[in-house]
Amino acid sequence: MSTDTAADASAAEGSQTTSRTNTALSAAMPGLPALDLSKTLDSQREQVEIYRQLLEILAHSEQASAAIFPELSKSLVAHIDTLSKLKEDLHGVFSRIRALKTHYQSEYPDAFDYVQSLHVKELDDEDDG
Fold first, then answer.
1. What is the SS3 string spanning the chain?
2. Is the pTM higher than 0.70?
3. φ/ψ bin of 48: left (φ > 0), alpha (ψ from -120 to 50), beta (otherwise)
4. Which end of the chain has fewer CB atoms at under 10 Å, N or C?
5. Is residue 37 within 8 Å of 25, Cβ to Cβ?
6. CA 48, CA 14: separation in Å to the nearest integer?
7. What is the pLDDT of residues 112-121, one digit of tens each?
8. 35: pLDDT strictly greater than 50
9. Which of 3-7, 37-41, 88-92, 123-127 has the highest mean pLDDT?
10. 42-88: pLDDT as tens digits
């Protein structure tokens, strides 16, 4: 059966179902005027088709995400490892700086105090500017 024939058969079946539904509804509620439900059913069919297309898009997106997730996970682990090493390196550098400051402060207290006072004056000048 070709696609056009299948579509025509489906449309004919839908219109038969609609007319049966309208007849049954009119028979069940004789005081109400006959209702045409075909617009409502067509609208619902369109919505179902939109939801099917959306489901296909979401499934494709999920598959693409699942495909790249392992690679991105490895990359993230590598970046975290790099940052951990950088943190350790910086911790080592700053602890050496603190040790040098302590050493020079105890060995050359007058020079150290003078340099510290210059640094404080520079900070005050920056705040004023």
1. CCHHHHHHHHHHHHHHHHHHHHHHHHHHCCCCCCCCCHHHHHHHHHHHHHHHHHHHHHHHHHHHHHHHHHHHHHHHHHHHHHHHHHHHHHHHHHHHHHHHHHHHHHHCHHHHHHHHHHHHHHHHHHHHC
2. no
3. alpha
4. C
5. yes
6. 15
7. 888 888 877 7
8. yes
9. 88-92
10. 889 999 999 999 999 999 999 999 999 999 999 999 999 999 999 99
- What are the structure tokens assigned to 55, written together? 């489901």
- Residue found by looking up tokens 């919505």 in the block: 47
Look at the alpha carbons of 79, 84, 90, 96 in this order and tell me if their dihedral is positive or negative.
Answer: negative
Quote the tokens at residue 125.
Answer: 């000048």
Q: Which two tokens stand for residue 56?
A: 């296909």
pLDDT at 91 > cutoff 80? yes
